[in-house]
Amino acid sequence: MVQDQERVPLDLVASIYEAALEPSQWDGVLEAVQSVLRADSGLLYLEDLQAMEASFQVLQGVDPKRLQDYFRHYIRLNPAFRYRQHKPLGTVTVSHKVLADREFARTEFYQDYLRTLGRFYTMGGHIAQEPGRIAVFSLQRSKREGPFEDADQARLRALFPHLRRAFQIGRQLADAEAERHAMLALLERIPTGVVLLDERRCVVFLNRRADSILAAGDGLVMTSQGLQAIDPKLQPVLERLIHSAVETGASRGTSAGGALSLPSVAGRESCQVLVTPLRMERVRVDLGRERICAALFLQLRDTQPALSEDVLRDLFGLTPAESRVAVALVHGRKPDEIAAESETSRFTVRAQLSAIYEKLGVHRQAEVVQRVLSSPAVLADRNGHSTDEN
User: Fold this and answer.
1) For residue 330, what pLDDT band results from cuts at 50, 70 and 90?
2) What is the pLDDT of residues 275-309, one digit of tens each?
3) What CATH number does the domain containing 331 carry?
4) How far is Cα 4 from Cα 390, in angstroms, rounded to an integer?
5) What domain count does the chain have?
């Protein structure tokens, strides 16, 4: 094994791990491995064995269009692929040892696929395996270049532990990034303002709702010193709540947080603030290197939720007219007001209200409001689009 490793350029090993951090560098890695092992083309891909397509692929010297044919049909006809399925993960195989050249030349895989690419010999193996998916690293040569020799196989075998580990690291980082983006998208859909603070009590994230509240100066603003209450008398209270919540989130305190109402200087609606710790062992919130320790939830007191009538119809089976009545109720309208605004009779509105009660399984107007506000309808705007599209 030591002899094998001595044949591997150290700068190539370094570039393999750099590709784990920056996936675009896999192209350079594949090209370098091809050069070291005198291959005409190379592949690195993650194949979904059920969907018969690659969710990740890096190509050198291979037509991407022809590769799709491989994923959809020829992969299962490849003698080397079938052979590797019964070998330990990371086994490096060469095609001429799996099947003799004369026999291989008669296979459908060669005649209908590999021959059209001008390739004959292959070398590679499976570098990772997940449920229903498998990652493959493979090199190809033309028949004129001759088969991959034992020395080539030894050099790739020395590289394989690095390729496997780097690919696994890259997948873990990609999964973490996908989780991060999903978390941020979820926070953007919440109709409440959300502000996340790190261990230094610095703001590391705020959703668009929080940004609009802070920009308007409705009781709370963002300054170079951090979050500031418009009313200076309430600033110490806000700072105390933030400090205790961060300390608890950092496992140095036991405060459960708190809430306060911050009136606007201009006399507009007040901003209601809930400050709460985020214990990392309970809630996984990661925006990078910052350790998220606390969150502020902001809501203007008299803000009416944006509701989609289409979403209400889908959720509760309401008619268009009933959906309009339900939205009006949530916005504080009384049945008589709804009738006047919609130019219908009070009897019609009351009949619609009775139908709403039945479909929502409630008996009072207040229960309609509670049922609607606790449903996913608050995550969509009046046009039926999700709030993160605004």
Assistant:
1) confident
2) 999 875 544 444 445 688 999 999 886 666 677 78
3) 1.10.10.10
4) 57
5) 3
